[in-house]
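chain below, 84 aa
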Amino acid sequence: MAREITQRQLRNQSGDVMRGLDSGESFVVTRNGVAVGELRPVRRRRYVSREVALATFSHAAAIDAARFRADIDRLADQNPAPRA
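prediction:
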């Protein structure tokens, strides 16, 4: 849950806020008691190596390409004609 801080706390304690963000903490910034913004940590992308990805899916069921295509054609409107 996000910790509520005032605009003044953000200004005067920005170092503490940044350290909190580094550790995964989120903040809701208020002005005159009204929430005006949210600060939250940026989600870091994680790299997954080819070997790990292949190992993860090595026991997955095989995909029948023709059946997969038929399912997509049945569920998705792929008519190239303009709609309007």
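Strands lie at 3-6, 27-31, 34-39. The two ends are 45 Å apart (CA to CA).
thats it, cya
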